[in-house]
Specification:
With 271 residues, this protein is α/β, with parallel strands linked by helices. Helix content is 38%, strand content 15%. The chain is built from 9 helices and 6 strands; from the N terminus they run αααααββββαβαβαα. Strands 1, 2, 3, 4, 5 and 6 form a 6-stranded mixed β-sheet that branches. Strand 3 and strand 4 form a beta hairpin. Helix 5 packs parallel to helix 9. The protein starts with a helix and ends with a helix.
């Protein structure tokens, strides 16, 4: 809830940009990033400065070449982004943050209940590179983001596909989830996931949340509103308002990083 006390905790007037990491947030992230090598040329830029540049692009939606001069050179920031994305650093970071945040609120580190959903993102425009598709249900040309969250809305796993693939292809997340989250037992999903393809794909029980009879217009649906809230939080990042990425890996990395930053700000707040 937005109160004067809550706003005072999140104020960032002392930082160069509102997207920059505070000292408390950096203390959460620093142990999870790549440690400097003992040999080789010393780094000219700190990881904190590079990550601040990546977060600026994520939150404002600007092009890499348009990074302000207060950050490291855009080529350096972009190169580190690609390096971390290829190494799976952001996925491991999001996993560790999810475990820490669940334990912070007194829950078991491994969830047993999850929510599955998909979101269609429009293409960035004519001439944008990368494979995309047309989703006739949403009338969107672009890509589709498949998300798996726990019952509190923390992102557990994600995938990106062309928009012409049906939502039920997100069952691949349930199959892959057994490696990172072995205790999953129950999944909530909408009618797009109804059928044997999803119901019998894994040992996880899939419960379809149906709208009420004769429902007209918008209505909050049990359980499913949690993942919609998570997608709303992530959608505040303008880089994700449209799909501008040339590669699926970059699109997925920005999506995972946006969800991870929600947890970073939680963990950095004083209790």
């Amino acid at each position: 809830m937005w109160t004067p006390a809550a706003r005072a905790e999140l104020v960032r007037e002392t930082l160069p940009y509102a997207t920059c990491l505070s000292d408390a947030e950096w203390a959460v992230l620093a142990p999870l990033l790549t440690a400097p090598a003992r040999t080789g040329r010393p780094w000219l830029w700190s990881q904190r400065a590079v990550l601040d540049g990546i977060l600026y692009v994520l939150r404002t939606g600007c092009a890499w070449r348009h990074l302000p001069l207060d950050f490291p050179p855009w080529g350096t920031v972009h190169r580190w982004f690609l390096r971390w994305a290829e190494a799976g650093v952001f996925e491991r970071l999001a996993h560790a943050l999810t475990l820490a945040d669940r334990e912070r609120v007194g829950r078991e580190a491994g969830p047993t209940g999850v929510i599955l959903d998909a979101q269609a993102a429009r293409s960035g425009g004519v001439g944008v590179e990368g494979v995309r598709g047309y989703d006739p249900a949403k009338r969107v040309v672009g890509r589709k983001r498949h998300a798996l969250t726990d019952t509190d809305g923390r992102l557990l796993m994600a995938a990106v596909s062309p928009a012409d693939l049906h939502d039920s292809h997100g069952v691949a997340l349930l199959r892959a989830s057994r490696q990172l989250w072995p205790f999953l037992a129950h999944c909530f999903a909408d009618r797009a996931y109804r059928g044997e393809r999803v119901g019998t794909a894994t040992a996880i029980t899939v419960e379809i949340v149906e709208p009420e009879d004769r429902q007209i217009g918008f209505a909050v649906q049990p359980r499913r509103w949690v993942i919609k809230r998570t997608l709303g939080w992530i959608g505040r990042c303008r880089r994700l308002a449209r799909d501008h990425e040339a590669t699926v890996s970059s699109a997925l990395t920005f999506f995972v990083l946006a969800a991870a930053m929600v947890l970073v700000r939680r963990l950095a707040r004083p209790l």
